[in-house]
Amino acid sequence: MDVEIVEVALRDGLQNETAVVSTDDKLALIKGLITGGVRRMEVTSFVHPKRVPQLADADELARRLPRGEVTWIGLVLNERGLDRAIAAGMDEVNVVVVCTETFSMRNQGMDVDGAIRSWERIARRAHAGGLRATVTLAAAFGCPFEGEVGPGRVAATLRRCVDAQPDEVAFADTIGVGVPAQVRALADVAAREADGVPVRWHFHNTRNTGYANAIAATEQAAGPTALDASAGGIGGCPFAPAATGNIATEDLLYLLHGSGMRTGLDIEAYLSLADNLQQLVGREVPAQLPRAGIFPARARVSPRQRP
Prior knowledge:
Layout: E1 3-7, H1 9-13, H2 23-35, E2 40-45, H3 58-63, E3 71-76, H4 79-87, E4 92-98, H5 101-108, H6 112-128, E5 132-138, E6 142-143, E7 147-148, H7 151-161, E8 168-172, H8 180-193, E9 199-202, H9 210-220, E10 225-229, H10 249-258, H11 267-271, H12 274-281, H13 289-292
Parallel strand pairs: 1-10, 2-3, 3-4, 4-5, 5-8, 8-9, 9-10
Antiparallel strand pairs: 6-7
């Protein structure tokens, strides 16, 4: 089975770290990730630098990205962000629509209805400009302010979003509360409300359920599956309390490759980045594999097979 990994360390990873990493260091990390086989990367967010100072260099970073080998994704929250993403030469934009009112106001300064209307405008303009557009339904598994989020609520939000013809729908467990039963329920929602639209999953491992959810997502897929992951497991959401711990790409690769799935990524290349990544963020990263190592020792469990 083929699984596409969307590397998000440069965006969702660094945005929640205390350290502000220089553009040069980001580009060096990107080069290492490309060496590891990454071909699709959410590399930055075109938001106001005061809100996310770790990504204040979005335009400069985009200008210096290597072109032609990797699909570059930029997160945008409004049309000003889209203007910047287009000018920066992004290949795709990712637009967030939060499923709950309180978190939507805190994250984007608008209610859910306003966020959906903003997504519709952005999607139309992105498509007209030749960019793919993903809509990510955030807090689809639970909200830090309103509690449980049922699949019916997610379905109602998605139903309105599909009118703008997303190229991809992503379900985000923004605060890491989800379990596999919810993954299965949301896969059913996607099949009902967005039949034929590729689905992508964004899991956090805040409560040690992220990897179980990732496996559950691969089991629901009728075709290739896309999973977000962050090198070292760094990051989270700065606007959601205790939303730490993206699933670590290297730990996910060990799980997927050992289960007979193909990702096209090289686990050993990822492990070679571990020390430098920890120096960049100034702390020990959550990923387990850099500490525990590959088993069996010196075995190559990640043949570089492209999906």
